[in-house]
Amino acid sequence: MSKASPPYKVLIVDDSAVVRRMITDSLQGAKDIEIVGRAADPYQARDMINQLKPDILTLDIEMPRMDGLTFLKIIMEQCPMPVIIVSSLSQKNSKHTIQALSLGAADVLAKPDGAHSLGKVGDLLQDRIRGILSSERHFDKVLRKPDATSQEAAKSIHNQINTIASKGPFHPQSIGLIGASTGGTIALRKIFENLPSNAPGMCIVQHMPAGITKAFAESLNSVSQMTVREAKDGDYVEHGLALVAPGDFHMLLMADSKGYRVKLKQSPKVWYQRPAVDVLFKSAASVVSHRAVAAVLTGMGRDGAEGLLKLKSTGAATIAQDAASSTVYGMPKAAYDLGAAKRVLSLEAIATSMLQLFRRSG
């Protein structure tokens, strides 16, 4: 899919007239963004999509007649396009939010809850719209059904991973570091579906708001042989365990006589993000060496590129996801352009390659 050209055409879908007006107000000052329509429900939105050809949708989850999740699935199956969920991000709704991301939503933002939050939400929404639409993107691949060829490839990957895992414990100082943004929830799920229970410990930064990361970690845990959970300050990174940085907290890697542990901080945002991939990677560069394997996955912007370069300078194995398998080829491209990635790999190859690299580094 080619990049869109400004002005970027936005369709707002929300059953609340007040919220539709607030989102409209938050975007109207942007000269490169055009609101082409406002729909009160998915049925109106369907007709507007056909007539107005928007570049991107904002979509609520809880709506009458048809909920946002059902509509999102239809969009991704029939006319794949970028969708930003703008919804209440309460803990109650976090599983719905994770489901939206797994169905192919590009990003998730909290609804403005009044005039005091309107400017902040507007700035974030404008930033997301520009970042997604100005990057090379492949939303048409999100829900592609596996064919016989891909099923055979998946079986081959499974066999390779079992062979690598069966060779015994990995070196105790081996560690994996992964950063992702737009499309990362799907990419990480595919990676963790394949990792064995004895894989080296992992630290994950996925750009995601507070209140959502716990449910996201639980969703990864449900498909992985590894234990995956949201990180707590002071947690040790152990083999068979993956720690997900909590929303609104940076995660740093430290080392002591017992091994690697994480530190959580609410220091200033980096690349407009907290957690930020660069914060994890740069902290790790001072404590890990050639036994680390780090990967930058799909996402908009350039978070992670500088940190990946620092890790490369320590002898760590560094990976960038390739353009063809990225939902948005922004962060991996920045890492590649900076010379930070020793390897550029398809999403399907990353889990196997990480395990192979752990064996070589040990």
Keywords, separated by commas or semicolons:
Rossmann fold, seven-stranded parallel β-sheet, 362 residues, alpha/beta, 16 strands, globular, 2 domains, 12 helices, five-stranded parallel β-sheet
How does this structure look, described?
The chain contains 12 helices and 16 strands. The strands form 4 sheets. The protein has a 7-stranded parallel β-sheet with strand order 9-10-8-7-13-14-16, sandwiched between helices. A 5-stranded parallel β-sheet has the order 2-1-3-4-5, sandwiched between helices. The chain is of the alpha/beta class and 362 residues long. It has 2 domains: 8-134, Response regulator (Rossmann fold, 3-Layer(aba) Sandwich); 149-361, 3-Layer(aba) Sandwich (Rossmann fold). The model has no long low-confidence stretch (mean pLDDT 90). The protein has helices at residues 17-27, 42-52, 68-78, 94-102, 115-133, 148-165, 184-192, 213-221, 277-285, 305-313, 331-337, 347-361, and strands spanning 8-13, 33-39, 56-59, 83-87, 107-110, 136-137, 175-180, 202-206, 227-230, 241-244, 250-256, 259-265, 292-296, 317-321, 328-329, 343-345.
